[in-house]
């Protein structure tokens, strides 16, 4: 069975500060890991994904995430927050070896606020 | 432009009045699914389809129906909506199973009064 825990339902940072959104997963098989972003009144957009290649994954809008197997973590970071980064962020996991039956297991989301 | 299109974006309806939310994708994806998003509960999968004429229940299928007669379309049907189906609904598609990464529509905000 797989699960995802996002630590902190709300995170607030100042513009220009480091963004760190935490995601821990549980998986009995090698995982694929994802971060999605949801801007107000919009659908979810894929930010980045880990699929067992490089452990440091770079995504869109300057975000990146590092897969740490020993810590079962996949935290999302951005060196300098911008006002336009204010959104809801979702971490998700799927089983890498589940073939065509694999599905996404979602965290509950973290709302990021960016203060001027 | 590659996209998943849902209609309508907003809908207010009355209890018991059948409605359909349409979803169409132009990426020739095999896999499509429907989610509902509720505060504090996150995203929950309602139904999914692995190909034409192949559909299956997700985590919260009660009160919903789907069909997949064509590869591009995956409508969500509420035959007798109730207030507890008031929610934000998303359609998603992916080349194979969604565990490879999914593309989402813009969402349909449904209110049942």
Sequence-ordered SSE layout with sheet pairings:
The complex is a heterodimer of chains A (116) and B (113).
Chain A (H helix, E strand, L loop, with lengths): L2 E5 L2 E5 L4 E8 L4 E8 L5 E7 L5 E3 L5 E5 L4 E6 L8 E9 L9 E2 L3 E6 L1
Parallel strand pairs in A: 2-11
Antiparallel strand pairs in A: 1-3, 3-8, 4-5, 4-9, 6-7, 7-8, 9-10, 9-11
Chain B lengths: L3 E4 L2 E4 L5 E7 L5 E8 L3 E10 L2 E4 L7 E2 L9 E3 L8 E8 L8 E2 L3 E5 L1
Description:
The complex is a heterodimer of chains A (116) and B (113). By secondary structure, chain A is mainly beta. Chain A has strands at residues 3-7, 10-14, 19-26, 31-38, 44-50, 56-58, 64-68, 73-78, 87-95, 105-106, 110-115. Chain A contains no helices and 11 strands. Chain B is mainly β. Chain B has strands at 4-7, 10-13, 19-25, 31-38, 42-51, 54-57, 65-66, 76-78, 87-94, 103-104, 108-112. In chain B, strands 2, 4, 5, 6, 9, 10 and 11 form a 7-stranded mixed β-sheet that branches. The chains are: A mainly beta (116), B mainly beta (113). At the A-B interface, strand 4, strand 5 and strand 9 of A face strand 5 and strand 10 of B.
